[in-house]
Amino acid sequence: MHPYRAVPADGPCPPSFQAGRRITFQLIGWSLASFTLACQSYEPIPLQLADHMDRVRERIVLPPKASPPRTDAFDLEDGASLAECEALSQFYNADLRLARERAGVARASHDNAGLWNDPVFQFSGGQILSPKSGLDYSGLLFLTLPVSGRLQVQKDRANAALDVELRRIADAEWRVRAELRTAYFQWSALDRRRALLRELLDQVGRIGSIASQLETAGVLSRAQSRLIRIELVGRRAELLRVQLEADLARVRVFGLIGLAPDAPIELLAPSVESLEDTGALTPERILATSTELAVLHAEYELSEETLRLAIRQQYPDLSLGVGPGSEGEDTRIPFQLSLPIPLLNRNAQAIAKARASREVARVAAEVALERIVRDAERASMTLRSVREQREAIEGELSPLLEEQSRTIDELAGLGDVDAFLLLETVSRRYDAASRLLDLEVSEATARIQLAQLVGPPIQFAQLVGPPNPEPAAQDASSAATEAHQP
């Protein structure tokens, strides 16, 4: 038996305690240094909307009129054609800019998917209240080993999510192109109707002067002459309405292009014949080139990868911890193994939700295919009917009106002037011309709708067909933009 000897409170610490404290401080220092070097710093970026509006106004700045003419093909000094507006929309359209930024979020997630979990440092220690006892401690560094293979599945799912966003960009570019074309033809029809109304007002004004002379001569009564003035006032009100609609349509076109409403650009009248022919409409063609179906197909592949990841997540990953430690006067190397056992939870809720979401994606694609085929058939029927109506007006009604005008001019030359017959003739000619404008817009709208539903030309089918599982699918957006050029 050794006699008990008291140790002063301010006496020297045991060597094991000093070594443990030194190792502990070293581990804590290494952890803090690693944390400082690995973490990113925050940099705020203020939202400056006023500066953005200045940039919008500066997007198109035309040179002075005295400058020499430009020789390149893209020239807005002599007006903006439909093809030039389409090119501008691919850069400045608000929806396309937002879609591309959203794809950047998917790109960031894709580039950082499948990373290992950060290591975890754990320290535990204790001091027995005994004069000769040392510090008992253990410092463990835990690392999760992804033996389940979920990291690769996370990468595959991130690749599928990025593919969805890229195909959404291609679909948005195709939709904006169709929307711009429709708005452009609507503006052109309103602008031409405005010119027709001005011509009609000039003719009705001259007829009103003739009616006033006939009223003075006693040929027409005041009530009859008043009817012509009523027609003149009504047409003036119609001109004001058409002017407003034309100005609003022009602002809408500029909005789709991404320019300021007061941009100094003159729009040039388009031609229906400039629209491309979609060719034969078959389900196989729609399946191969429809941008909308390409998005839905990619979303279905994403649901497959989501289900695959949920199933893989039910398998456990191995967590391994190892580090220095001591127990009394003895130095030891403790280690721990952690392996969850999938018996109760098994990620059942996430798996069931992923299976149901996959069925939703399947039905969404099937329903969209049915709707696209149906809408394409309706657009084809509308196109055939509109062409028949145009042929009837241009081939039968317009010649009759021209003949009627010549007859009235001949009668007027003989001194037989009928003011109401003149008014009826010029009104019918305006109505026929206005009806032709409506039919032209309807034909253009039907052709644009067919092109939107069917998708890009067949040579670009690889851009919008079933998603490519390889990461190379990220180039679909830029290639689809080139495909849209006229």
TrEMBL record:
<dbReference type="GO" id="GO:0015562">
    <property type="term" value="F:efflux transmembrane transporter activity"/>
</dbReference>
<dbReference type="InterPro" id="IPR010131">
    <property type="entry name" value="MdtP/NodT-like"/>
</dbReference>
<feature type="compositionally biased region" description="Low complexity">
    <location>
        <begin position="471"/>
        <end position="486"/>
    </location>
</feature>
<feature type="region of interest" description="Disordered">
    <location>
        <begin position="464"/>
        <end position="486"/>
    </location>
</feature>
<protein>
    <submittedName>
        <fullName>Outer membrane efflux protein</fullName>
    </submittedName>
</protein>
